TrEMBL record, chain A:
It comes from the Bacteria. This is ATP synthase subunit a. GO terms for molecular function: proton-transporting ATP synthase activity, rotational mechanism. One of its GO terms (cellular component) is proton-transporting ATP synthase complex. Keywords: ATP synthesis, Cell membrane, CF(0), Hydrogen ion transport, Ion transport, Membrane, Transmembrane, Transmembrane helix, Transport. Belongs to the ATPase A chain family.
From TrEMBL, chain B:
Residues 56-112 form a coiled coil. NCBIfam families: ATP_synt_b, PRK05759.1-3. The gene is atpF. It is a single-pass membrane protein. Belongs to the ATPase B chain family. It comes from Geodermatophilus tzadiensis. This is ATP synthase subunit b.
Length: 276, 193
């Protein structure tokens, strides 16, 4: 039973008891569904919930589609190849080449993996029966942001040399010396803490909030419709709102996947090219 | 039950298990993208670029070929035109020459015919004159004898009178016989008349 279904049961239970405690808004429990399987390996607890299952399904489905798209590559692409190519070109040309810079093409596979992984998982937010994005679990955006963090620092050291890279961050060139008191802490914070953290939180929070919105409006519609007083008028409004928010969520899904990848592109660009 | 479990959890503190699952999932995605998907896409892009460049090259070579053919055609046309002009000039010159030849031939012919006519005419006239000379003499003497009624016995005197008469006749004659209207239809330029 999904957590949303549990919440629905709660809502209907309220109706059954006819209690006066009103609508119980869905809470954090949405994101902690009951595990389907639990096991412990080397002291680490793994719990396979429907969210992790969603992650597997989304990832595998995305990989299967992409592999199918390039299985028999043609100069004149078929439908599936065209779709895959368009997506890959968006990242390769739009981000790797234009944002990262002339040396950016080797990063295209990484950025494309990032983009499609996030996109596929985000899409789980509005796919029926899944309807929750794995990216609304902080662990997954955090993993991606952590990998990005390691990568852009590593590339910075590789391209500019450790001394130059860290010196440029610690003492931003072209800044008057007394200003370093202010600028250096900000730059350190910016490069090593804020960037990965915002990267992870932006994606997580968007998917988290999107899911909450959808759940609130959906359950609200059910609740309002089940009440036999005047509130039944507002039920359809809430249902309509849930549908509208689903489309809005679709926009957010693409936008957040793109934003994450573009920001990683700009960080890579900063690492490859010497700072200003 | 689920709500109680959730209350104690902070959504910003992820469980280690999920982090590991996420790492594994993304690692798989990375491997597939680096090993399979990206190289295939690059291969397609390269092939397409080559195809387009090859197509442009082919089109350019074809255009050059077409231009060369046009040039050749034009050259041939010009050549043919000059040749035609040459042939025309030559033909005209030949025609002129033939005309000249024919004209000369015709003149020659007409001159010959005229000359023969004149010759014949002269011969005829001569024979007529000769004949007449004999007959006129005899006739005149006969007539004179009859008129006078006497025979002119003086041979010498008689001869002298006849000859003088004939000479007078000769002196009168030359205008009329040489008129040239011999019946020939060949055109004879005026200067030769």
């Amino acid at each position: 039973m999904t957590s949303s279904a549990l919440a629905l049961a709660d809502v209907l239970a309220v109706e059954d008891t006819g209690g006066g405690d009103g609508f119980q808004a869905p809470g954090l429990s949405e994101f902690y569904p009951e595990p389907l399987a639990e096991f412990s390996l080397l002291g680490v607890d793994f719990s396979i919930t429907r969210i992790t299952l969603g992650l597997f399904i989304a990832t595998i489905a995305m990989l299967v589609v992409m592999v199918m798209a390039v299985r028999k590559p043609q100069i004149v692409p078929g439908k599936l190849q065209f779709v895959g190519e368009s997506g890959y070109s968006l990242v390769r040309d739009g981000i790797a080449r234009d944002v990262v810079g002339p040396k950016g093409i080797p990063f295209a596979p990484f950025l494309a993996a990032l983009f499609f992984f996030i996109l596929a998982n985000n899409l789980m937010a509005i796919i029926p029966f899944a309807q929750i994005s794995p990216m609304s679990k902080f662990a997954f955006p955090l993993v991606l942001a952590g990998i990005c963090w390691v990568l852009y620092i590593y590339i910075g050291i590789r391209e500019q040399g450790a001394g130059r890279y860290f010196k440029d961050i610690l003492f931003l060139p072209g800044v008057p010396k007394p200003m370093y008191v202010l600028v250096t802490p900000i730059e350190i914070l910016q490069n090593f803490v804020v960037r990965p953290f915002t990267l992870a939180v932006r994606l997580f929070a968007n998917m988290f909030a999107g899911h909450m919105l959808l759940v609130v409006f959906s359950l609200g519609a059910v609740y309002l419709l089940s009440r036999d007083n005047f509130s039944i008028v507002f039920g359809p409004v809430s249902a309509l709102m849930a549908i509208v928010m689903t489309f809005f969520e679709l926009l957010v899904i693409f936008l957040q996947a793109y934003v994450f990848t573009v920001l990683m592109g700009t960080y890579l660009n900063g690492s490859i090219e010497a700072e200003h | 039950m689920s709500i109680l479990a959730a209350e104690s959890a902070n959504p910003l503190i992820p469980p280690l298990g999920e982090i590991i699952i996420g790492l594994i999932a993304f690692a798989v995605v990375l491997v597939v993208f680096f090993k399979f998907i990206a190289p295939r896409f690059e291969q397609v892009f390269r092939a397409r670029r080559e195809a387009i460049e090859g197509g442009i090259e082919r089109a350019e070579s074809m255009q050059a070929e077409a231009r060369a053919a046009l040039e050749q055609y034009r050259a041939q046309l010009a050549e043919a035109r000059t040749e035609a002009a040459q042939i025309r000039d030559q033909a005209r010159a030949e025609g002129q020459q033939i005309l000249e030849e024919l004209r000369a031939q015709a003149q020659e012919e007409s001159a010959r015919i005229v000359a023969r006519g004149e010759e014949q005419l002269a011969a005829n006239r001569q024979s007529v004159v000769n004949e007449l000379r004999g007959q006129i003499g005899a006739l005149a003497v006969d007539l004179a004898g009859r008129v006078v009624g006497e025979s002119l016995e003086d041979e010498a005197r008689r001869r002298g009178t006849v000859d003088r008469f004939l000479d007078q006749l000769d002196g009168m004659a030359p205008g009329t016989p040489g008129d040239g209207r011999t019946g020939s239809t060949v055109f004879v330029p005026g200067g030769d008349r």
